[in-house]
Design brief:
The strands form two sheets. A two-stranded antiparallel ribbon has the order 1-4. The radius of gyration is 12 Å and the shape is globular. The protein has four helices and four strands. It has a single domain, classed as Alpha-Beta Plaits, CATH 3.30.70. The longest helix has 8 residues, at 67-74. The protein has 112 residues and is of the alpha+beta class.
């Protein structure tokens, strides 16, 4: 089992999960995070820290479909190891539907 990040993270990018991860397996895109499935130790401490509930074990219904996406993006996006502020419109985008089709930006995070 591994944990994944799904499309609920898009345009929110809360990083409370990053702060508690003991193995630094989160990677940062322009407007979402992903988990490297081979680095995740399945501890689950990140899951309750995610306000939009975008982190799930791959055994949850539909979550296994996100494993290849998380693996692909974590291989090219930069590692994130410290908590940062969420995106400015995070609260407004928290419950939006069709986020992957309408809001996803397929770029690594801008380096600060």
């Amino acid at each position: 089992m591994t944990y994944i990040v799904n499309d609920k993270c898009i345009s929110c990018k809360y990083t409370d999960c990053v702060e508690v991860c003991p193995v630094d397996c989160f990677y940062e895109g322009e407007n979402m995070l992903v988990i490297h499935p081979d680095e995740c130790i399945d501890c689950g401490v990140c899951e309750p820290e995610c306000p939009p509930e975008a982190i799930l074990p791959d055994t949850e219904n539909g979550a296994a479909d996100w494993v290849p996406f998380n693996l692909e993006k974590s291989s090219i996006w930069p590692n994130i190891t410290e908590r940062r502020d969420p995106l400015p419109d995070a609260d407004e985008n928290l419950d939006k539907a069709n986020k992957f089709k309408t809001l996803f930006i397929d770029k690594p995070a801008s380096q600060n």
